[in-house]
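Section 5.1 Outputs to date
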Amino acid sequence: NAGGDIPSQDKVDDLKTWLSSVLTNMETCLDGFDELTSASKEKEMMQLALRNSTLLTSNSLAIANKIITILQHFNIPLHRRLLGFPSKPSSDGATGFPAWVSSKDRKLLQDNSSTISFDIVVAQDGTGNERSIAEAINKVPLQSTKRFVIRVKAGKYIENVVIDKKRQNVMLIGDGMGATIISGSLSFGGGSTTFRSATFGKL
């Protein structure tokens, strides 16, 4: 660039993360258009625009992947500090958390589940407030600025969970890997759209 600054590895890795997310989003949109049975000029125009954008994004991602290799080839030192992670321990001892994670949320992430105060508890055996995750999500206040914490007790929950855009600051805590399981079965072949088939989705 004009200033002659060399991009750090953390910035390149962040760029790759964002480009990968954009690429996934556009591919999902293309899948949605492919699933439409009706043909129209508007559909063809949107598909063409998305395919062109997908190609450009894919090329950009390929370039970003090569940047680190090129810098290493010229023995240019790189420094890693991903997505706002502090390079040195912070004053509150929360090393390893991004700078944008509040102290309250850090405490939530570090605490044992037995010491956390939950807003709702989900349990299939009826020992909680709700029996399904979807029922608990429906109890989340709309556009709330307060963190809403849901505990999902051990069990296999056969449901497709969707958190809509009006429900924010939602945190789900399970009983551990292999204990709390969410398993959906929607698919395009089964009559659903690709967009709606996610086992756990945030709109």
